[in-house]
Amino acid sequence: MADHIKLRKASGRYSIRAAGAVLGESNAVIELSEGSAAPVLYIPRGDLAMAFFDQTDKTSHCPHKGDAVYFTIQAKSGPIENAAWSYETPKEGLEDIAGHLAFYTDRVTVEEI
């Protein structure tokens, strides 16, 4: 794992919402801090209504975390394209975020409740 990346269990319970719908709640959130960037919250898939998520063809690569895949959320108001991402097989030292989704905060609200 890159020295500038830190993982910690986020304290509290979180609600995940988009387009007026609750997509899940979790008290098993992992906070990833990378350098001076804002922390990113990773939510276990088991705590999300994955029936609303479709994996897309979009991918990206981070030299520190690995290859990411993206998900579109199927909302009543229409699809929210590539609103979430996941590192299916993250690099060594970051295995705890495998099986978790992170969200673009301009499309999905993740907040402590």
From TrEMBL:
Cited InterPro entries: DUF427, DUF427_sf
Pfam families, per database record: NTP_transf_9
Domain DUF427: 16-105
Transmembrane region(s): none
PANTHER family found in the cross-reference section: BLR5716 PROTEIN, DUF427 DOMAIN PROTEIN (AFU_ORTHOLOGUE AFUA_3G02220)
Record protein name field: DUF427 domain-containing protein
Native organism: Litoreibacter roseus
